[in-house]
Design goal:
Layout lengths: L2 E10 L7 E11 L5 E5 L6 H8 L7 E6 L2 E3 L12 H6 E4 L12 H11 L4 H14 L16 H13 L5 E4 L8 H18 L2 E5 L3 H7 L2 E6 L2 E6 L1 H4 L14 H12 L9 H13 L1
Parallel strand pairs: 3-8, 3-9, 6-7, 7-8
Antiparallel strand pairs: 1-2, 1-4, 4-5, 9-10
Helix pairs in contact: 3-4, 3-5, 4-5
Length: 286
Amino acid sequence: MGIRLHAVSHVYQSINQPPFEALKNVSLTIQATDEFIALVGETGSGKSTLVQHFNALMAPTSGEAQLFDVTLTAETFKDKKIKKTPIRKRIGLVFQFPEYQLFEETVLKDVAFAPKNFGLSEEAAIQKAKDALRLVGLDESFEARSPFHLSGGEKKRVSIAGILAMEPDILVLDEPTSGLDPKSQEMLMDVFTSIQNRTHTSIVFITHDMNWVERYAKRVLVMKAGSLVFDGTPHALFQRPELADWKMDVPDRFKVMQYLKTHHSFKDPVTTPDELIDAIIREGQS
């Protein structure tokens, strides 16, 4: 077990505004290996607040967050004897905007910073950085370049490599494809699949794109007004009548399926795009 939240709530306090409950009694478990989870929900539903509880950037106002062998509550979070750094090494969070994580003068130095900070020698940290850059598809020609002179997609890859160099058990990505063109989005999602195939790292990614959810995720978490309202497979999600209330669309393949089902009567039940293809082939052969 990697992450277990039990009845976690989080309230933002403000001097000029009434308290705002961003998370409401959220309970979930994420395994340390081979999970590929999409976290979805409309803007303001609590997604970013939730993932900051995954690696001890935020403390629960109530409830508890068990992160591997450390249990954090509102009280224990303040205990200086409980170190947060080892948690953040095992559960790596990549922010939506890579500029928040890039600060060194070269790509290689930037990616090597975290391994050095965790006690590796200069030589070992550099090797970890090189390995991480290859994982995200950046060759040695990028190593001496300034991270601030890269394209948006390249910056994303460098920020991801900086977390991968720590060899986390769980990789959490806040809207990793935002601001990228469709081809770059697909390339980046394929990178995550490749990373998991090689390392068995569990991956959690926030997204608004249901096509990526259907294509890549094995499990989906849906947030609505601070509450976790769904935890299941993409196929089960896209059958739910509450999708409109959750402000969510269906993937393009499901839209085509729904259109054809409306305009054609098939002999066999059709509930997925693949079943639709099989039904069309059978109809053509009969």
